[in-house]
Specification:
229 residues; mainly alpha; Arc Repressor Mutant, subunit A; Four Helix Bundle (Hemerythrin (Met), subunit A); 2 domains; 3-stranded antiparallel β-sheet; 9 helices
């Protein structure tokens, strides 16, 4: 007998909105209007309200007075915590992928790596290609619950895994090492490479944010004083 899991309309709407957030289709601070979402997904407002309540419980949206549900603006501290969770979940998925990846998985992952490597550092395609590269690896673990948890952590970071802080050459080199470990079916090495990759992203993010704060302070210090009224 074939078994299946029932998915309510609220489940499907929550999944779709979660994907919109993780994919960067809706950014931090975006107001999620129930009527617009109901029309978009061709459902009544009831499953939309239920989906937004679930996403609020997950910390992805917040209900604001007179505005409704709004995509959360994660703080630097929250981003760091989220990356810490990623550094636990994703190495496990990557290690399992070494055991379970098929020839088709390896071919698809290798192709995505090569596409990224061929891009110029400022190519806007890199963000989506990077997202697909990592997700394709994790999909190969074939553990639905683990994939759901990873997807939720990605949703907490607008656009999913970020490449805007790390030098392009470093990303390509680390991806190449991951592809090699995957081909060698070396789960221990793959897990370690994945952990280093994620933790390195945090370090690059913190350096970039620190540089931005220093630059902003310098601009304020250099600005002429405001005339007294």
């Amino acid at each position: 007998m074939t078994s299946f899991t029932f998915r309510s309309k609220a489940d499907l709407v929550a999944d779709a909105i979660r994907e919109m957030i993780s994919g960067g289709d809706v950014g931090p601070g975006t107001v999620l209007r129930q009527r617009e979402l109901a029309a978009r997904f061709n459902v009544s407002p009831t499953p939309v309200r239920e989906a937004l309540r679930r996403l609020e419980a997950e910390g992805l949206v917040v209900n604001e007075v007179h505005r409704g549900a709004t995509v959360v603006r994660p703080s630097e501290e929250n981003k760091t915590e989220t990356y810490g969770i990623r550094a636990v979940l994703e190495p496990y998925a990557a290690a399992l992928a070494c055991e379970r990846a098929t020839a088709d998985d390896l071919a698809a992952i290798t192709d995505l790596h090569e596409q990224i490597a061929e891009c110029e550092p400022d190519d806007p395609q890199i963000v989506e290609l990077n997202r697909r590269f990592h997700w394709r690896i994790y999909e190969a673990c074939r553990v639905p619950l683990l994939l759901t948890l990873i997807r939720q952590t990605w949703s907490a970071i607008s656009g999913g895994p970020q490449v805007i802080w790390r030098p392009h050459e470093e990303s390509v080199a680390q991806h190449a090492a991951m592809v090699e470990a995957l081909r060698d079916r070396d789960g221990v090495r793959m897990a370690e490479l994945t952990r280093i990759h994620i933790e390195g992203a945090v370090e690059h993010m913190q350096k970039a944010l620190h540089s931005d704060r220093v630059a902003q302070k310098a601009d304020l210090d250099a600005a002429p004083p405001t005339a007294a009224r």
